[in-house]
Amino acid sequence: MKQLVVIGNPIKHSLSPIMHNAAIGALKLEKMFHYEKLKVEEKDLKNFVEKIRSGEITGANVTIPYKTTIIKYLDVLTKEADLIGAVNTIYKQNDKVVGHNTDGIGCLEALGERGVETAEKKVVILGAGGAARAIAFAIALNNAKKLVILNRTVSKADELAKSIKNKIGTDVESNGLFAVGEVVKDTDVLINCTSLGMKTVQNKKIHITSTMLSKNITVMDIVYDPPQTKLLEEAKKAGCNTVNGIGMLVYQGAHSFNIWTGRKPPTNVMKNAILWHIKKTKKMKSNIALIGFMGVGKSAVGRSLAEKLDMNFIEIDDLIEKKNGRSILEIFEKEGETRFREMETEVVREVAMTDNAVISCGGGVVLNEINVAMLKENAIVVLLTASSRTIQKRTLNDRTRPLLNTRKRSEKINELLSSRRICYEKAADHIIDTTSLTKKEVTEKVLSTIKGNVLWR
Ligand code: NAP
User: Fold this and answer.
1) Fewer CB within 10 Å, N or C, the chain?
2) pTM
3) Angle, to 10 degrees, between the axis of helix 16-26 and the axis of helix 267-282?
4) Catalytic residue among 2, 12, 67, 279
């Protein structure tokens, strides 16, 4: 069995074993490789490298705080690791212990996956530590138009900027973190590479608010625990394209995996393993399901939420109509409500398994406990309510609702509302009364209610 490890101190938080062991399993390499985390004290680093040299350990990832300190014990550095001055992957090749750095390429690939280019763009990097160095060099080598490096310790930002300017010739500026408000104004991409936002760095945050950001900026936070940092929340509020740290974690890991095993790992398996772990441990979900009576604004609010969060919008009733080639009204008339409810459950089953979606549910979806259980597997359920009068007003001219096709419309609304109330409330994780609110206000309220519960992209 070949042993792979990630070393650091502390190391308890590392998600690397989860994704690497998932890749090992997917490639059926369990009998050959196993990946573990290992806490190493600084005084034991030399000894650790000797274990790689002797073959006791096959390969390693290196994380905080050893990416630079370990270099003195290695035999050779790759061109990238030498340029960056930090190492995140170690492997013995031709009897030499070699230090690699896959952080920069991992970051570029995570941005690329989301369609974000850095070539010919202005990029602001917050931080000047190990990860910032790797990313700054990778972006400079990828022909950025301009780089701005801001760090709490300004001398470190200056040193990194000087090094990039000398070695690559990129136009680079440096300053303290305090300058962020000014430099972010005309930037294309902003990447946080400081530890601010990490679960373990509490009560300290980057001073960037939504009002400082224009919606044309892509904001990336390489911190992945939590995956939704305050910075990304502010960026979402400003309507920016956002990229969390999970993509980079997966891609830098995939390159390390390839170095140790010679195999290309399935990055989707690695990402899903991480997402599953995060959702389970943090009680987060991938979707938002809006439930409630007709006329409470599920479709309008759902669309606006999806747009704000860069999520897909799914209307269950629309899907039923598309699948059956008939309107809901026709299905009710020709096949009856019971058959309609069966179709509804089929569609809910399908939709419940998707990710990154805002799902607007028909008014009767939650009457069936099976539908509720399926939705709740992967969605935060938000109940929108409104007073009976408001619903009457909002649905007055709508003739597409089969259950309201009666002359005693207001009585029918009251009857349905009171018979469904318990089901709605039982299914809901959160309840928002929309009676006196605009679409924008309801959207804002949903956003602040679900904060930290939904794992958006
Ligand atoms: P590092 O070498 O220790 O650098 C830490 C950086 O954060 C430095 O720029 C430091 O500024 C800054 N910082 C720390 N505490 C601060 C505070 N209270 N106020 C302002 N700035 C502060 O660490 P690293 O290896 O670069 O990692 C940085 C972050 O990136 C960590 O959260 C790590 O988990 C994450 N990361 C993610 C990935 C991924 O794949 N997604 C990969 C690598 C790292 P000073 O220089 O002033 O101390």
Assistant:
1) N
2) 0.89
3) 140
4) 67
Mapped onto helix, strand or coil, the DSSP state of residue 413 is helix
* 204 catalytic residue (yes or no): no
Answer whether residue 185 shows pLDDT above 80.
yes
**29 burial class (0-12, 13-18, 19+ CB within 10 angstroms)?**
middle
- Residue of the CA atom closest to atom 39 of ligand 1: 249
Our answer on whether the CB atom of 253 is closer than 6 Å to any ligand 1 atom is no
Give the Å distance between the CA of 303 and the centre of ligand 1. Answer: 36
In the chain, the amino acid numbered 310 is D
Q: How far is CA 449 from CA 147, 382, 452, in A?
A: 37, 9, 9
Give the CB-side neighbour count of residue 117, counting CA atoms within 13 A: 5
Exposure of 394 by Cβ count < 10 A (0-12 exposed, 13-18 middle, 19+ buried)?
A: middle
pLDDT in tens, 304-342: 999 988 899 999 999 999 999 999 989 988 999 999 999
Using a 6 Å cutoff on CB, does residue 198 contact ligand 1?
Answer: yes
**Secondary structure E strands in 11-162:** 33-39, 59-62, 76-77, 89-93, 96-100, 122-126, 146-151
User: Cβ(191) to ligand 1 under 6 A?
Assistant: no
State whether the beta carbon of 200 lies less than 6 angstroms from ligand 1: no
